[in-house]
Hints:
single chain, 0% strand
Amino acid sequence: MNxxxxxxPTFEVFPSTNLTAFxxxxxxxxxxxxxxxxxxxxxxxxxxxxxxxxTRTGNGVASEFLNLNLTVCEIIFCLFALIYLQKLxxxxxxxxxxxxxxxxxxxxxxxxxxxxxxxxxxxRYLAVVHPVTFLKYKPLRYRVICxxxxxxxxxxxxxxxxxxxxxxxxxxxFSFVQFLxxxxxxxxxxxxVLRALKQSGPGERGREREEENHMKRRAFKIIVILTVTMLxxxxxxxxxxxxxxxxxxxxxxxxxxxLFCFVLGGFVPAVxxxxxxxxxxxFKPP
Length: 286
């Protein structure tokens, strides 16, 4: 793929999507392997997480509502991987339909997933730094409102991606601005929780202080993991787009690596949840 992809309406987010027939190249083979890995392991894992959240007794759905929506995003990414894989292996007369569908689902990749990760960080931040506000907005209806707004924003991004993918520069800056926004919010939450961790409330007893510090440390770890995950997911993707513009060609190896990071990053929230509910035999629940 050359730099003409920057203005070519057939341009796609990841490498090797402009094939008119299957080409057994190393880049294509690696891309197919990553997509198959996502389908074989991602789809059952995320489906299992959704089933656990929905069937969990007590206040499971309410407390894990953001995680539930994030997992739905990962299921949508598996749909993206399936269509992408079909496009690579068996081009057909329905190529335009696949192209539009892939562009539409790209909005979920670059907007909805990091947005829900950001909301999870904000939730932990409120629980630690502003517990009164957190308790006020803890009921499920407020989470439903936030998630509805997030999905509407993601839907707008999906429609926007159908058109901006014709210009690589516009798409790159659109992704980069979103990344800076989400990363700044998560970094703010990280620093605020870290400061709260170093402080103790007045008149706290030893046991109460230890319980509160445990909650703060847990929130801090989750925010760190989500922030690092977003860096691992988004940075290779943005770097590959910058290289496209600077070198005036698609560095397909970097693009495949960014796709691999996207796939692996999607497993992090699922693994955290499975560990928390004690469903991972090789990890003890915290």
